[in-house]
Amino acid sequence: MPAVDQKRTQEARNGNASKDKNAPRRWWNAPKSEVARQLAAWTDSIERGNWSRRWANLVFYRYITGRPTAPTSFNYSATARPSSVNIYSRAQFETPRYNLLAQCSDSLGARIYADRPLLQVSPIAGNQKARVKSKQLTRWLDAIFYDMDLWHEIEKCGDDCRTWGSAFLKIDVDLLGKIKATRVLQDEIVIDENECNAGEPQHMAIRLFVNRDELAERYKGNPEALEAIRTAPHATNGLYFGSDIDYTNVVVLREAWSLKRGTIKGRYVLALNNYAFEDKEYDKEYFPLAKLVFKQVSTSWFGMGMPEMALGLQRELDRCSAAYWENIRRAAWPRILLAAGSNVNPGSLGDKSNGLVNFTGVEPKFVVQQAIGADAFRWYEDIARRMKELFRLNDQMSMGTKRREYSGRAIELSEDIDDAAHMPQAERLQDFVMCIGRLLINAGEKAKPAVRLPGRSVQVIKWEDVELDQNSFDLRVFPVGRLSKSMAERQKQIDTWFAQGKISKGTAMRLEQIPDIDGYQDLVNASRDYVEATLDKMVEDGEYAPPTGLEDLQEALEQAQSRYMLEKLMGTDQKYLDLILKYIVSVQQLSADANPPTPAVPFGMQAPAGAPGNPGPGMAPPGGLPMPNVALPPGT
């Protein structure tokens, strides 16, 4: 081996490979003394090649929002801005006159990304205890989604993926031992897409621009870390071309993961340019981020957003709008042609309406010309139509109006067509929610939090009561339809219930005054919900609770019998089945007491008037017709 190669090999073994510019920047197998510098070199080398992508993402954000500014991360950079990027400083952004792109994005956001799929934990060939734990873990997931207000974060991720093509939500445990969910922008994600040629990336970093003083406050008990923060190089100017930003107090913080692969250990690093705050083994085969993609691209790990798909059409729409505005301003107003020597007073032409004009010679001619031709209008409308078709939207969906169909069957078919058109986005949202659920369970094993399940009576669920081996269950996701929250739709639902005889006139009037539809449904279903909760308690806790007698006994009997057969089919322990049988017998006894059998009348005798079987004179028998008041023949 040549001496130069031997020297480089020895430097790599000693942790000094970063001093050689030609040495590979592999932070995941660098020694602790060099991991911070090699991580900085790895992320910076990728960022230098992403200036055009960062500028494109900034343009996409401007068009989707109509704002000339950008998220804060675009203002800074970890590397010096190339001189070629300065040409962007001369690019003037003008808000679209007709931002159809944003309108289409809002329509898809309301239709797809405002949905809240239901997560369900399903046991994998488990026993009765595993099924009970799975049900409890499902409740825990439902509670933590509401407790952490994750649905609003997921809607924001929907905005991000429609803007940039990809959105990310990071789930981890903070220094205080609490589960934390953080939205991460695509501009902050650093991966080497060369790794994606053979599959998913194995190394990832998040590049953050943080305030130096805030970072020092976080590590104020660590003198070595404080010194590293004080001497760390500051960030440089990114895609902000003004001079009113102070970069000196902003440093670059990098958080990176290397996945575990077979016998190769994973690694987690949190570092500045010259100091690693954390450097430890990472034992997972996935990153602690959930990714949501709008449109998958086969040649990129990142997705494609709506502006990237339709920016050309939006700009053509803007060009036409600008031209039409100029034509209307210059050519759509009436003009008056005055012949030379016509002896007309121009001031009289601007007199009141229907005024008289005195002239001598050639009369003035009023000209109203067409500012925009019919072909130009058709071209403009065709561009708007093509953009809507690109995202599979119709006029009703993009404008938020009701459908033109009047038949219920026609409306149902149209809804099915629309759902099929946006099925890829809906399925990716469901996968995104399922990934968040898995990450929450992983974080729960570490943080062991107690969460609150919302409702009329708030229920606290502890992690110790729901903890389950991850190899014994699987997650499933179900889409849930969104009920309209408008007063008009609720009034329509009240009218439907009243027309079908489900509620009385008094109940309808009360609901119209205070349209608490959800509360009324809780009231109507209270008996069934109570029976289900009672049966759950028997199977889950082994505690018997007898029926009160106030339930709908027939429905309670059917529920208990069905639950018994289900638990028996699933192999539930016999002691729990005996509790359900005991409940069934109690319900049957209460039902028998409430409806005693009709006593038998001996042959040849007549039951007393008013007794069962003899309603008495003038009273209706069970058949419904009045009993004739006549004496029965002897012997009958």
Task: Characterise the protein shown here.
- This protein has helices at residues 3-13, 35-48, 51-65, 100-113, 128-147, 150-164, 212-218, 223-231, 306-331, 346-349, 374-390, 395-399, 408-421, 423-447, 487-499, 505-513, 517-524, 526-541, 553-569, 574-594, and strands at 76-77, 118-123, 166-173, 179-184, 189-190, 203-211, 236-237, 250-258, 266-271, 276-282, 289-293, 335-337, 365-367, 450-453, 459-462, 473-478.
- A 5-stranded antiparallel sheet has the order 5-6-8-9-10.
- Helix 3 packs across helix 9, helix 9 (306-331) runs antiparallel to helix 11 (374-390) and helix 19 (553-569) runs antiparallel to helix 20 (574-594).
- Helix content is 44%, strand content 13%.
- The protein has a domain at 17-90 and 147-307.
- The N and C termini lie far apart (123 Å).
- The chain has 636 residues and is of the alpha+beta class.
Alpha-carbon distance between the two ends: 123 Å
* Number of H- or I-type helical stretches: 20
* Helical amount: 40-55%
Strand count, sense and barrel status of the largest sheet are: 5 strands, antiparallel
Assembly state (oligomeric): single chain
Which structural class best describes the helix and strand composition? alpha+beta
Low-confidence segments = 1-23, 481-485, 618-636
| Beta strand % | 5-15%
- Quick one: overall form? flat
Spatial extent as radius of gyration: 37 Å
User: How many E strands?
Assistant: 16
Arrangement of strands in the largest sheet: 5-6-8-9-10
